[in-house]
Write the structure tokens for this entry.
Amino acid sequence: MKNTAAVMTGLREMELREIPVPTVAPGEVLVKIEYVGICGSDLHYYEQGRIGDFVVEGDFILGHECAGTVVGISDDVTTLKVGDRVALEPGKTCGKCEYCKTGRYNLCPYVEFLATPPYDGCLMNYIAFPAELSFKLPDGVSTKEGALIEPLAVGLEAASVSSVSIGDSVAILGSGCIGLCTMLACKARGASMVIMVDVIERRLEKAKELGADVVINAAREDVEARIAELTGGAGTDKVIETAGNVKTAQQTIDLVKRGGEILIVGMGAEDNFPFNFGKFMSKVASIKTIFRYKNQFPVALAAVSSGQIDIKKIVTNEFSFEDSAEAFERSIEDKANIVKAVIKINE
């Protein structure tokens, strides 16, 4: 059994390197990784070496969206068996802090999250991982879809925290993978009109293909005027920012309905930026944020398995493991065409 990892050795530098096959510890399974999704955070680390306070130091393995097949288990694991196909929830939390004990484990200060420095990711052949975070894929759900459960969990968390429900109008700023997953989650929860906004036409085409009611190219249209036209001047019930962009974060207050709700999902690069709190207060709007997700993997798997959410159509490009460096380079350089890329690790 040979284990190879795609190792980031510097900014926009990556090489395949043989590493030891991990030994399973108590409570763990050994997973043969089959698909890994390339996330925006992976691209940030690869291109810039950091996201906020998280800094890549030395060699680093990217990837946290993954699925594969169990090929080994520790003696005390009874919930899975060799041959089970699983999706991995990438955050190992302590289970003991205030946040873990109250069900808000996404806030655990001791979390070890795949591909968040200093913890390596899953862009490799084999990984040992806690069985309790290895979710068995239902029959009919492929491992490629399994690798998309993680970003779908973010979208489900966004729709849940913003309390999207039947009849709501929702504007989603940013039509990348997380924006699209959020759209799918909002539609599944009964939103009557979901408006997707972006400046990249390919992403908007994908949004329309996946079920967006309206798409707006912000490079060509006045977003505020168009949404006012669509809502009779009122604005949307919910505005969800997924782009991590200062301009779109500022724009949320201009788009939300009086008494409506803003949700910030995207993490921007700037620590401080102007926000019109006067207009925000006069609208008596509310603003919330999310950080990753909690208890959403079972929901995501059920939604995909039942056909309520068709996640596989998000993927626009698939690369071989040997071409991992090219996959990252193209995802950076060809944003006009690549909406979501996955890397196929093993057969």
